Amino acid sequence: MQINLDAIFASALSPYVLLDTDLRMVWANEAYLKVTGRTRERLIGRLMTEEFPAPPDSVSDKMLKGSFRKVIETGRADHLPLIPYPIETEDGTVEDRFWSATHTPILRDDGSVEFILQNTMDVTNLYRGRDGGGLDHLPEQVAMVQRAEAVANQNLALEAMTDFFKSAFDQAPSFMAVLDGPDHVFKIANRTYIDLIGKRDIMGLTVREALPDLEGQGFFDLLDQVYSSGEPVSFKGMPATLQATPEAEPEKFYVDFMFHPLRDVDGGVNGIFVQGHDVTGQKTAEANLAATREKFRTMAQSMPNHVWTADRDGGLNWLNDRIYGYTGAPEGSLYGPDWVNVLHPDDVDGAVADWTDAIQNEVNYESEFRIRAADGSYRWHIVRASPLRSDDGALSGWVGTNTDIEERKTSEEQIERLNATLETRVSRRNRELEELHATLRQSQKMEAIGGLAGGIAHDFNNLLQVITGNLQLVAREIGPDSPVQERLEQATKSVSRGAMLASQLLSFARKQPLSPVPLNLGELLAENTDILGSAVGEGVEIETSVADGLWNTNVDPNNMENALLNLAINARDAMNGQGCLTIELGNAEFDDAYAASHPVVDAGQYVVISVRDTGCGMPPEIIEKIFEPFFTTKEDGHGTGLGLSMVYGFAKQSGGHITITSAVGSGTVINIYLPRTLKAVESGSTVNTQGVMYGTETILMVEDDDEVRETARLMLEDLGYGVLPAADADEALTILDRIHNIDLLFTDVVMPGKTNGQELAKQIQEIRPDLPVLFTSGYVQDAIVHDGRLDEGVQLLSKPYTQSELQRKIRQVLDTASVSDVRQPEAGAQGAVAQCSSQDTDEGASRGLTVLVCEDDFLILTDIAEGLREAGYTVFEATNGPDALKVLNAQDVGALITDVGLPGQSGEELATEARATFPGLPIVFATGGIEVRAAEVLGNCAVLTKPFQETQLRDALDRLVSKAAAE
């Protein structure tokens, strides 16, 4: 700068100071140094606000900085008539002073401010009313200064308000401008407006001059309309094409705006306020969204799945055609919350709850439910939805799909069923393992009992057999009135007691050979009530109860009677011979869940025998051991401890289980559960137990014990039979090779040497397949017994036996074999199917009908078949449904006779399948009491309830055949 300030202002009486635009003092005259009490060295180079500080945001600070800012921004001088401003004196105290200042800009060549020259006068004395020159005009001067202060304060407030509104106007997110006059001259425009139009310099220009590129787009016409009518106008999303410079590319915008008239004090329009928003981004996004939606819907319509969308609150607002096609619902009928109308009623609550949770938490939705198809059926779907979000992350809607999972659900159900079966098998296996572990824990005791049982069964029973045989032979030779007869009877009773002891040991060890048959326990109980009464004595009252519709069970009748007798005797002893014994028979059924929680129980149907006494009861420590062998609560010499052990072993060996409930002073309840059988009770001919039935056949008897062999020989010869005794298998084979006229092999099972009785029987039957075999033994082990039951077709006479038991069993085996000899098994049938020609009788010739009999019970099958053959029928036999169908397809069969309760395929299922192939086939159902619905459905059927007479069967066949012929 070339101005010589010292030459101009150095000697001036008024204080001057020069500042740059940072308010740094660069020059001051002597008057300024004097009035401020500063030296030149102290001032020059210092910021004025540092050298003369005022409290921040005070009136002094705001007035001084505001004036400097105005000068720098406008380039014009500014005057502060009065400004209070504190100043630090030489002694360091701060004195409140009042000043009047003028700030004059010194400009550069380009018009910008380079320096500010401050001329400041100290008017403190004048402000405070102290006259420095005279008193005449002092009041007026003071008033003038005070008015100047008021004006300064008002100006300061006005400037602050102006600054605030200018800042708010300039920083507003919407664009704003003020237009003046009918030509719409720009008076004010905020930064947002300037940015929108391309940073043009528009102040003082009309809109047509400032924005010629808007010509023809309707904005000028709207401004003229608002100015002339005085009514505001507003538009949303109006397009505007702007071109900031002729060289720039035209750019299209979308704006929401309002033109509002401004009025003067008289109410006339003198300008227009313009305000609005640039919504170009929103419009672009909406257009892109519309295009995206259209692309999405086109894609969704081509997808094989159900696709739908929903608003942010979860109401459906669009569904693809596949949903309407599947549900048959009219288009639009599932919008909003109405989508639940096609859900299965049982699934609605869960689906809605899941959907509500997803909406509230703005997370993915997934649920499985059934959706109704147009035909009314329901199919499982997995329904998924994902939230849609705007650029700022806000939830804007949902898109979802429905995928058919019916086949997966079906597979899952099948897997569940398989798993349930697996769990049942695993549970059963676990129970078996638990039982095995329990058995292992007592392995030493059980081994000792098993060895004892085997020794007793083999050796002791042989001794008893010799004794009982000779006792019976002696009894035959003496008269009934002989005094020896009583002693023989006592000896016989002792033998029976010894045999019972061995039998009890075998029962507990589950090695007692059982011969189970279908039984009605109600009938068995009725037959044994008198025996039980005798056993418990007159002091014990016996009450029995049999449930209506009691099921049958498959058990060994003799062992069942012994079990009842043992329970009754134990109850009598617990009651000291006085009390009430209640025996109840009923039905029980255990499901898989019960069986899973009770390891000793298999699920199924059972017949339950409940024996309750009113005795003393037992504590828990006694109950835990009550079924152990040789454990007894009776005094020495009054019990073996094998009674309940035998009952326990019999129940388990019969496929059932036993429970006990007791408490001291409350009596005891023992329940035996035996599996139900669907087979009917067999109706056999009554065996004559009186006298002796003689025979003349020849018997090959094999027994290694000399005394037993000799006793048995004498008993058989006494019955009239011819006996060929042999001590071992080799001797027996030698006899067979030498003598061919042998009618029966009667052999012990357990014999020394390499060949036992069972292996001997196999060898002999290879030579003589028609030779019947009767086994005898006191301890059969596993030779002819498996799972505690005799092998199918095996005949056994347990030692010791009486002569009466021997004669009955011999005759049963011989008579059965004589009937079987008539049958001629078909080659390769292995006993399942056999064909026999009718007897050449006149009656057979007259009937001439071929009949197929299907019955799984061998004796019943034989009886029916032989009776029909004797009546002149040609008979085919089968023991199961598949083999019966083979015969029907291979032979010309005129009628079918079938049992209902066949293994595997039932008789009703067999009859239905047979009728499908042979529509006119007459069918007779033989049943033990089961309702046969197939007879009514198929027609031309007869139902015979076992036992029935042969004449009833023949009459039924005649009726059915005659009816079929008539049709």
UniProtKB/TrEMBL annotation:
SUPFAM superfamilies: ATPase domain of HSP90 chaperone/DNA topoisomerase II/histidine kinase, CheY-like, Homodimeric domain of signal transducing histidine kinase, PYP-like sensor domain (PAS domain). Residues 1-75, 292-362 form the PAS domain. InterPro entries: CheY-like_superfamily, HATPase_C_sf, HATPase_dom, His_kinase_dom, HisK_dim/P_dom, HisK_dim/P_sf, PAC, PAS. It holds the Pfam family PAS_3. It catalyses: ATP + protein L-histidine = ADP + protein N-phospho-L-histidine. Residues 365-417 form the PAC domain. The modification 4-aspartylphosphate is found at residues 748, 899. Its EC number is 2.7.13.3. Keywords: Phosphoprotein. Residues 698-814, 850-961 form the Response regulatory domain. GO terms for molecular function: phosphorelay sensor kinase activity. The keyword Transit peptide does not apply. It is an enzyme of class 2 (transferase). Residues 455-678 form the Histidine kinase domain. NCBIfam families: sensory_box. This is histidine kinase. It comes from Neptunicoccus cionae.
